[in-house]
Description:
- The protein is α/β, with parallel strands linked by helices.
- It has helices spanning 23-32, 56-69, 85-89, 94-97, 126-133, and strands at residues 16-21, 38-43, 76-81, 108-111, 117-118.
- Helix 2 packs across helix 5.
- The termini are far apart.
Amino acid sequence: HNRSWACFVSENSEMEKVSVEGLDDLLAAVKQREGRVLYLFFCGTRSPETGESWCPDCVKAEPVVERVLKDVTSGVFVYCTVGNRETWKDPQNVFRVNPQLRLTGVPSLVKWGTPNRLGPEECAKEDLVRMFFDVED
Length: 137
C-alpha cells in the first residue's frame, strides 16, 4: 500500500511530485531538476503492513503537508524516505552526515540549497508549513 503524492496536486498546478527512497535516489532526482525550486520532505519509511511510517511525528505531519501542497503552484516536491527506525537512528545515517542535509530528525522539510527548513516539531503546524512553502492563507 503505497499512497501516491500525485493526487494531492491541484489540477492547474505547475508543481511536480516525486517520491524517492534513500540518499542516492534523492541526489539523482535533485540533479535532474537543477535550477528549479526543490522542497524536500523527509519521513521514516512506511510499513508494508500498515502503509504508515514507523515515525509517529511523520504520520501527524503528512496530512498537514498534503493540505498545504494543494495551494502550492510551482516548484518540485520530493517525498524522501530515510529508512526504517534502526537505519535512521544510526548516528552515521547518510541523511544525518550529508553536508547539504545534516538532518537531525524526521519529519523534516528542507528547501534545497537554502537554510530554510522545518523540523519534527514544526512539520505538523499548518501555519509554519504555509510559511515554509510561501503560501498565503
